[in-house]
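Project standup — Tuesday

K.O.: blocked on the structure for the chain from last sprint. Re-posting the sequence here as requested.
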Amino acid sequence: MPGLLDQYPDVQESLGLLHRNYRIMPSGMKYTQYVFLASIFSAVEYSLAQTCAVESFAVKDNFDPKRYAGKWYALAKKDPEGLFLQDNISAEYTVEEDGTMTASSKGRVKLFGFWVICADMAAQYTVPDPATPAKMYMTYQGLASYLSSGGDNYWVIDTDYDNYAITYACRSLKEDGSCDDGYSLIFSRNPRGLPPAIQRIVRQKQEEICMSGQFQPVLQSGAC
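H.V.: unblocked you, prediction finished:
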């Protein structure tokens, strides 16, 4: 990728040194070392090419709220900072006659460090830019005085409507445009899980939003 490494002079210098030292194909151990080092630098170059700027993240094309409506169960989550639903998370989405999407959600939450309860939440969704319907803004309310209310971005990164959905929200950005505090949920229509083929898609999407390895499973025991 022309110019990509210009902003990383140390890596660029190391790559140049590698090629100068091995410009004639070596044999034996040196050849093995060359292949090993070339693989490492290729991986480094690939990681540098991937941007974690939130605005660069792709979302679901031509998102259709009516197909998205219905019951979803969270199978995995990446928590934000602060209080967040713990397990048994589910959401029921409804599309009103005027096209507005609303949701009622449930999940267990731990309050004061010891009190675990089932929390009920309500949310309403607006679309700031009609050209990107998968990028919504969510206003939510806890249906009890001790639960929080507020608003977050709500992006549908990907969904096939029938099996899985991946949602994403970033609450604050770093100076470079990457996310400083955000969260994501992996939803399924089936609380028992997703088939292997779809799990592979989900892992790829986790990488694309720079959250690979940060998710934890969500228990679905029917407690709520």
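K.O.: great, moving the ticket to review. Residues 65-217 form a domain with the Lipocalin fold (CATH 2.40.128.20). Residues 1-12, 17-27, 37-49 have pLDDT under 50 and may be disordered.
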